[in-house]
């Protein structure tokens, strides 16, 4: 009986996976980071960001993605930290309110693992980055989870006395969890 049920459900799961994921659920998504201040990990997140995504599991190389981050929406753990990091020495949100990532390519790594490459722009500086991530379909939605290491000084984040990597490490771990549904009905396999 179990085998019969699995055979019946297989076409349904294939149909769900064949639909492109392009409707991001921001209320279920998260963009966070971990920095180190005097060797102590400090977690934070950005509360406002916008994601434009098109990912078809049947054609992953054709994927498209763009993320715009409202830098003033940072939650660095305290009111004082939030006020400091939006200032001129850090993000300088008055002059550079938004950071942007634009994907330029996607490579399957096997299984549900991929690597997205693209251009990250912060404070008028752009760098190529690569971010490994996993994709898994869950209940008609796609969940994308991954991250990469950002070198904050490459973007001028933490200038002046904050440029000392003995106080705040240069490496910042970026972590993301993007949840998306499909605007179109699934194609039949």
- List low-pLDDT spans: 1-17
Number of helices: 2
User: What is the CATH class name?
Assistant: Mainly Beta
Mean pLDDT across every amino acid position: 89
Question: What is the succession of H and E elements?
Answer: HEEEEEEHEEEEE
CATH 4th-level superfamily: Lipid/polyisoprenoid-binding, YceI-like
What best-fitting shape do the alpha-carbon axes yield? elongated
Structural class: mainly beta
β-strand percent reads: over 45%
Domain count: 1
Q: Kindly, what is the distance between the CA atoms of the first and last residues, rounded to a whole number of angstroms?
A: 24 Å
| CATH architecture classification | Beta Barrel
Major sheet characteristics = 11 strands, antiparallel
Estimated radius of gyration: 19 Å
Annotation, overall tally of beta strands: 11
Would you tell me which CATH topology applies?
Lipocalin
The percentage helix is: 10-25%
